[in-house]
Design brief:
four-stranded mixed β-sheet, 405 residues, UDP-n-acetylglucosamine1-carboxyvinyl-transferase, Chain, alpha/beta, 2 domains, globular
Length: 405
């Protein structure tokens, strides 16, 4: 078993960090670029696992694809292959084989696809018989992963009858749906989204030159570090104020946790203000991937919190609510799940573990969100290599702060 010992003893923090490109934008750009039959290469592509396996699948002459733990790739490629003539098999890691995909498969099959389960009903691996899709109208629960919706939207223009998706109930992760819509428009396709209905008429994508912006989700860990340290400044390259990424909300939210953001031409400058809220309540329905960052930050700063809108966290790389409750006990914090889709800490503490060894559950965000705990106490991160899923250079960047324990 691999692990990484961390004991961060920074002096004054003054860093410049080259962030990875956005995984969310990279994966959408790759699918849209392929659908446009473009000869242009996407510029500034993410080099993370999710993007790498998507690139390999799109460039491959194989008919079987193993996408490992890459959830975005599983959803997007399932839809893409269903309209690509041929017989395909797509599989993944043991954890991936336990992540539900029935809703997407049912939707595709109702639109004229033929997708079958190779092993267990409702879960990967899948056998896909790709062909032209009829399309039509479907209803989906807006409370499911937005990746299902985005996967369908991107292939919608190539359905013979177009695509209409009626979203029912509360819509989670709305910024990701809006990101998909905005990028489709950049590639020349019109999308109508009104009254919880997405309508896409038959059209074709146009090849364009496309450059991916840096990842606001990755930026969140540097906000966390500066908030916990309580002093210094960090410059993050390649971030845009007018971003498609819902996680750009991190800049506004961290104002309550002692970090100010200044937008500059080449990126953003973070500075410590020392101003912290006394408690933190927020609905993360549109930014679920920030939950781990804020849970760890609030605990270490002694700020009680109640988070809601976390329904999608149970079907991520791991059940992130359970993982946070388990792992934050080790440094001495007792979290609870007051209701479905909620997570709270009311200030209750317990005895710290003699050795704080953080399990990462094959989840990149567990590793990166817990790494800053080392600013307060020595910790061990188990399976640190999981960061390759979205931020392969994270440990090298963090080493600018660390002193081996």
């Amino acid at each position: 078993m691999t692990s990484k010992d961390l004991n961060i003893k920074p002096t004054a923090i003054n860093l410049r960090i080259k962030l990875p490109a956005s995984k969310s934008i990279s994966n959408r750009a790759l699918i849209l670029n392929a659908l446009a039959y473009s000869s242009f290469d996407i510029q500034n592509l993410s080099d993370c696992d999710d993007t790498r396996v998507t690139v390999e699948a799109l460039d491959s002459n194989n008919t079987t694809f193993d996408i490992g733990a890459a959830g975005t790739a599983m959803r997007f490629l399932t839809a893409f292959l269903s309209k690509t003539v041929g017989e395909w098999v797509i599989t993944g890691s043991e954890r991936m084989k336990k992540r539900p995909i029935k809703l997407l498969v049912d939707a595709l099959n109702s639109l004229g696809a033929r997708v079958e389960y190779v092993e267990n009903e409702g879960f990967p691996p899948l056998r896909i018989f790709g062909s032209a899709l009829m399309g039509g109208e479907i209803s989906l629960d807006g409370g499911v992963s937005s990746q299902y919706i985005s996967a369908l939207m991107m292939i919608g223009p190539y359905m013979q009858n177009g695509l209409k998706i009626k979203l029912e109930g509360n819509i989670i992760s709305l910024p990701y749906i809006q990101m998909t819509m905005s990028m489709m428009k950049e590639f020349g396709v019109k999308v109508a989204f009104e009254n919880n209905e997405i309508e896409i008429e038959p059209q074709t994508y146009k090849p364009i030159q496309y450059k991916v912006e840096s990842d606001w989700s990755a930026a969140s860990y540097w906000y966390e570090i500066l908030s916990i340290a309580g002093k210094g400044q960090i410059f993050l390259e390649g971030l845009n104020q007018n971003s498609y990424q819902g996680d750009s909300k991190v800049a506004e939210l961290f104002e309550k946790l002692g970090v100010k953001t200044e937008y500059q031409v080449e990126g953003v400058l973070l500075t410590s203000t020392g101003n912290y809220t006394s408690n933190f309540e927020y609905d993360f329905v549109n930014q679920p991937d920030l939950t781990q960052t804020f849970a760890v930050t609030c605990c270490l700063k002694g700020i009680p919190f109640v988070f809601s809108g976390l329904q999608s966290l149970k079907i991520k790389e791991t059940d992130r609510i359970a993982a946070l409750i388990n792992e934050l006990k080790k440094p001495g914090f007792v979290l609870i799940e007051p209701a479905e889709g909620q997570l709270a800490w009311y200030g209750e503490k317990c005895e710290k573990a003699p050795e704080i060894s953080i399990s990462t559950y094959e989840d990149h965000r567990m590793a990166m969100a817990f790494a800053p705990v080392a600013l307060e106490m020595p910790i061990i991160i188990e399976h640190p290599e999981v960061v390759s899923k979205s931020y392969p250079n994270f440990w090298n960047d963090l080493d600018q702060l660390t002193v081996d324990s």
